[in-house]
Amino acid sequence: MPLERFSAAWREQYVSSTGASENALDAGECVFCTLAEAEVAQSSGVLWRSELSYVALNAYPYGSGHLLVLPRRHVAGLGELSLPEYEDFFLAIRLVVTALEAAYEPDGMNVGMNLGQAAGAGIPKHLHGHVLPRWIGDTNFMTSIAETRVLPESLASTWDKVHAHIGA
Fold first, then answer.
1. Dihedral angle at the C-alpha atoms of 57, 9, 115, 47, nearest 10 degrees?
2. Is residue 130 among the annotated active site residues?
3. Which terminus of the chain has a smaller tally of CB atoms within 10 A, N or C?
């Protein structure tokens, strides 16, 4: 059985853009550091926080329920986390998976990180993990042909669904 391949060439323009290069630098204010201090509220997109980590909506989601898990401290890689930060970060990922399973009842889950600009991180200077519920048949022609994502819910709706299960 041959392996089918789909192109994500639409990402090339962004990851090679000036904007992506600027995000790789520590010049200016980090949007994730700003969010780390924001209140847990629908208006901020922050769903949960601990002393060391926090969870936020992805402002540019690949699909419904796409969340980010981040350390509160500004670090670029896993090796820069202290052991308590590392443990808290991965416990937060587990908390998010559990909350998304309760909120969406998906068929599966993507959990991952793009470590560094070369790996496709949109903001490589602040470590973050992606957690995204998935369903059988949830991909369609719009992304691969029209370079467009169709999301059946607003970010506010995502926040409401998940916040009810995340234990804020």
1. 0
2. no
3. N
pTM for this predicted structure: 0.77
Pick from 117, 129, 115, 147: nearest CA to 15: 117
Architecture per CATH, domain 10-166, reads as 2-Layer Sandwich (3.30)
Tokens 């969406």 correspond to 104
pLDDT digits (tens, 9 = 90+) for 42-70: 999 999 999 999 999 998 888 889 999 99
Residue tagged active-site, from 66, 126, 128, 130: 128
Longest CA–CA separation in the chain, Å = 51
HSE-CB at 24 with a 13 A cutoff on CA atoms is: 16
Indicate the pairing of strand 129-134 with strand 108-112: antiparallel
pLDDT tens per residue across span 90-120: 999 999 999 999 999 999 999 999 888 887 7
